[in-house]
Amino acid sequence: MTTADRKTRLAGLRRRLRNWTSFLILGLVVSGATAIPIPTEMALASRVLGPDMAAGGALPEFMAQWARKLRDGIQATEGAAPFIFYGTDWLAFGHFVIAGAFIGALLDPVRNRWLYKFGMAACVAVPVWAAVFGALRGIPGWWRVIDASFGVVGFIPAYLCDRWASEAETLESTTQDPD
User: Residue ranges per domain, the chain?
Assistant: First the structure.
């Protein structure tokens, strides 16, 4: 491979790394942001899905039943103990902090490649966490699968970025002037 080919390949890798790292950051920010307004989100869901939470029969009864349980529990908690939602505020904060850490990978994906490995490890833990604590908290299995899917979705770009950062490192070491 010529120096020009290596530079072209490196530029493409950097573009992919930038795009997919941005996707990871955006996913963390959006996921975190949705943890803050839970009562508001549930009120909106109630308006959209209707009082029976079945969306006019579009949702299967087991889903509507779970949605009603969520709505009733969130409303009761909001009325009796709104401070409980402070825990989800901190959950959001954790997402934002992790997203902020990935800015390091956005700026220098080779030097900060460890963040992709950290992200992969965290993503692998998501299904385990959902299985264990979902069962302890009485969360239906189908809902735990949805929660676990966030780990799968996050793992894929973290894995790809780790692989591309490794390739970029090799190309950087063999290309004298990559810019």
Answer: 3-174
Contact call for residues 31 and 150 (beta carbons, < 8 A)? yes
**How far apart, in whole angstroms, are the C-alpha atoms of residue 95 and residue 129?**
16
What is residue 92's three-state secondary structure? helix
147 vs 127: CA distance, rounded Å: 7
Query: Position of tokens 């004298």?
Result: 176
Distance CA 93, CA 87 (A): 10
Under a CB-based contact definition with an 8 Å cutoff, are residues 132 and 141 in contact? no
pLDDT digits (tens, 9 = 90+) for 98-123: 999 999 999 999 999 999 999 999 99
Spell out where 8-106 has E strands.
Answer: none
84-94 pLDDT, tens digit each: 999 999 999 99
| Alpha-carbon span 178 to 39, nearest angstrom | 51
pLDDT band at 178 (very low <50, low <70, confident <90, very high): very low
CA angle 154, 156, 159 (to 5 degrees): 105
